[in-house]
Each structure stands twice: as structure tokens, then as C-alpha cells.
Amino acid sequence: MKRQFYLLAGLTSLALGSIGIILPLLPTVPFMILAAFCFANSSPRLEAWLVDHHVFGHHIRNWRERRAITRRGKWAATVAFAVSCGLALLFVKLPWNLVPIAAALISGSWIWTRNEPDPAKLPVQPPSHKE
């Protein structure tokens, strides 16, 4: 029963992370990290696939090894928070709805307290062909 729960939670996280690729305000990498955790408790094959994934694998390994988030990831999350809060301010009734917006901003800022990965362990980017 526990294994099936983790498998279902992992598949749900994978689906939400996949939707986040298209919807800019839904986070992708945190859902992939959660999916990898769930698959570690339910499906070693799916966990290995996700940890070795060419796009998400290094984010998962950085989190597992050092609880690290890249600076680019931190900035992307900060911009997404700012856009979300800006949109919320446009569409919510004030002043009481400021409480969840403030809570989101405060709780989201914790990412800046996380480690950054060792630059030597970051994946090598192919050279750009700008001419």
C-alpha cells in the first residue's frame, strides 16, 4: 500500500512538473525533485530514469547532494514569484488578500538561503554558435 501511494504521488508530481514546463508560474524542478523522492520509495527504474534525465537530473542530484539550487534557478523562481504576486495584486480584493500574497513572498524567499552547486559539478553547456 505504501509503495503504491509513493508511486501515485511520484506520477502526480511528474505530471504537475510536466505541466509546469508549459505554464510559466507552475514550478517544474521542485515537482521533479519530489517525483524522484517518491520514485526512490516505489520504483527504482523510474527514479533512475529521472535522476539520469538530461534536463532534470543535475537539479535533482544538486538537491540530494548539497540541498543546492543554481543561481539561475533562484532568479527564475524570484521572477515567477514577483509576476504571480503582481498579478494577484491586480485581481484580488484588498486589504485582506494581501496576507496570502505576503506569506507567499516571505516563504518563497527561503531559496536564497540554499547552497549553490559546485561550479565544477555543473553540466557542461555546449558552445553557442553565434556568428
In summary, what is this structure?
By secondary structure, the protein is an all-alpha fold.
Proportion of β residues?
A: under 5%
Please count the helical segments: 6
Give me the Rg, rounded: 17 Å
Largest beta-sheet details: none
Overall number of strands: 0
Number of self-contained structural domains: 2
Give the overall silhouette: globular
Low-confidence stretches: none
SSE series: HHHHHH
Description:
The protein is mainly α. It has two domains: 1-66, no CATH class; 69-118. The chain is built from six helices and no strands. Helix 1 packs antiparallel against helix 2 and helix 2 (29-40) packs antiparallel against helix 3. The radius of gyration is 17 Å and the shape is globular. The termini are far apart. The model has no long low-confidence stretch (mean pLDDT 85).
Features:
131 residues; mainly alpha
How would you summarize the topology of this molecule?
Elements: H1 2-22, H2 29-40, H3 44-51, H4 57-66, H5 71-91, H6 98-108
Helix pairs in contact: 1-2, 2-3, 5-6
